[in-house]
Every structure is written in structure tokens, then in C-alpha cells.
Amino acid sequence: MFIWKKIRPFFRSFYRLLNAFNGFFYDFKRFFYYSGWKENLKDNQVRNYNSAMVYHGLEKSLSYKKRNPNSGWSNAEKILHRLSVANEKGELGYHDKAAKDVLFQFLNLPENKSLDKSKQMLSELDKMDFQSNDLHGALQYSINNYKKGILETPEDFFLSRYSLREFSKEVVPNNTIERAVQLAMKTPSVCNRQAWHVFHSSEQEVIQKALSYQSGNRPFGKEVKNLMIITTDLKAFFAGSEHYQHWIDGGMMSMSIIYALHSLGVASCPLNWSQTPKADKALREALKIENNQTVIMMIAVGYPEKANIVCRSSRRPFHEVFSKLELR
Ligand SMILES: Cc1cc2nc3c(=O)[nH]c(=O)nc-3n(C[C@H](O)[C@H](O)[C@H](O)COP(=O)(O)O)c2cc1C
């Protein structure tokens, strides 16, 4: 008995390592099967994300005050290739259309317009009968526009958000949920790929099924009236070094949603999805979430009551999390 007490912590730690390995292997398998590493441009979603990555390079080039007049051609050629695949397939996504617009602007730059290669590429674009309904490329953006973001007392906004676990009985209407997600869609993402997806339900049967796989919602989960599941599409990630990017982009989107809800007077509680492969698979069997979507977290959403009790969740001393960046 005494020996067991001594060696138990070792077994517990080793079990954690094994679990982590299981998780890494599961994530690797998911990256292998569902990410865009093969760069199959015939897959509509893969091509769209990939086009975003490429045309965003051109957008950046268009936005520099002193741009190098010779830059951008390799991206321009890549865009044209992706556009011809899209055009041939006849399946056009948002980023395909945006890519055409950005390439058109690039080819019409004063330094490019009269070049033979521009004329040739423009005539190729001319044969493609589609266009974007949105604006792309670069934008003049004054300091006054930036100043619109200044809050008189930012502390009021940031420090008044608390995770709430017991909400009022009122269901948050769809238009409020949608407005919050639309606000949150301004979240930055790698190359503006915007690989997130937000699943929402206010149906008790769906909510309770989803929450039954998540352990952190006990005991308040049974009263949750609105639930979101935030996912990121693995198809948007190509390079091996991007194997964690979906967690980052999805995490940022999740935070924006929480702040957007807060700005609309709606409270929330993030619910972790640091789960075992078994739980992740079980959730996918129960809910319509495509395999290429990585579940980032769930968010319980609802209105606060007049009087609430929340965890203080006090923050660590500032100096523990902030220091000067220095050279070694
Ligand atoms: C990714 C993530 C997962 C979380 N998961 C849970 C959870 O499963 N259950 C829960 O009650 N709270 C959960 N929380 C809420 C945290 O406990 C809470 O954010 C933290 O204590 C800070 O408190 P505050 O949000 O009120 O500032 C989670 C938070 C994050 C960011």
C-alpha cells in the first residue's frame, strides 16, 4: 500500500503523457486526412482558402506606400492558375471572386498596365464571366477612422465582462446572435483566410446533446438556452508549420465572439474542448459537424439576470505577465 502511494504519481504522470501522445497522433491524422497539405485546387474549399493566401499577398503589395514595382508577379501567376481551375470547374467561392478582383487591380497598376504580360493576363481574366460583389485590394484609411475605436473608458468594457454560468430564462434571439458573429468576423486571421465556422442552436435537444460530451458545464449546462460551437476548417492550412494555426485562428474568433456578445449586453461562458479523441469522435457522430472542421470550443450564451453571482477569477499581478523584450 505504501509503495503504491509512492509510485502512483509516477503512473498518473505517465498516463498523462500517453494521453497527450494519443491526442498528438489524432491531430496528426486529422491534419493528414483533412488539411490542405496536398493543395488539391480542384477541391472548392481548399482552392478558396489557398487563393485567399495568394491574393492577400498581392493585397499587401497594393497597400504599401512605396511598393516595389517589380513585386507581386509570382502571386499574380498563381492567382491566374487558381482562377482558371475555378472557372473550368464552374464552382466559384468568395475568395475565387475576390482573387479575380485583386489580380485585376494589380494588372492595372500604372507600372504594370502597359506590360505585355499584364495585357495577356487581363485578356485571360476577360474570359472569366464572374465578379465579386465586395471591395478588395487596398483602402485609404485615415487616423480618424482608427480613432473611432477609442473607448472613453476601456476599463468599463473590458473589466465588466465575466463568464456567466447561470443565465436568465430568456432565449437570445437569432438576430442578436448573428449580429455578434458578424461583428466578430472582423477578427484577424492568417492571410485573411477566415477559416472559422460558428454553429449555433437554441433547441434544447441539440444543446443538451452537445453539452453531454463536455464535462465543464456541470451543473449549469441543463439551463443553457443558447449554445455555440466554434470550429476552424482544417482545409485552410497547407504548410506543415501551420499545424497549430487552426487553434490560433479559432481561438481568436472565439474571443471576439465573447467580446461582441458583451458589447450587445449578452453574457457567455467559454466551454473547453480540450478533449480526448474518443469524445471528439463521439461529438461528431451526434452532431452535423464536418470532419474537416476542428472543434475549438463551445460557448454557452445568455442574458444575465438582474442579480448574478460570478467567480471573481482575479488576475495575476501585471508584472508576472509583462516584461521588457531583450536580446540574449
Ligand atoms: C478556452 C476556455 C475554456 C473554458 N472552459 C470552461 C468550462 O468548461 N467550464 C467553465 O465553467 N468555464 C470555462 N471557462 C471559463 C474560465 O473558467 C474563465 O474564463 C476564467 O476563470 C476567467 O474568468 P472570466 O471569464 O470571468 O474573466 C473556459 C475559458 C476558456 C477561455
Automatic annotation (TrEMBL):
TM region positions: none
UniProt key word Oxidoreductase: yes
Record Pfam families: Nitroreductase
Residue stretches making up the Nitroreductase domain: 160-211, 247-303
Gene Ontology MF annotations: oxidoreductase activity
Keywords of the record: Oxidoreductase
Protein family: Belongs to the nitroreductase family.
Listed name of the protein: Nitroreductase
Organism from which the protein derives: Bizionia paragorgiae
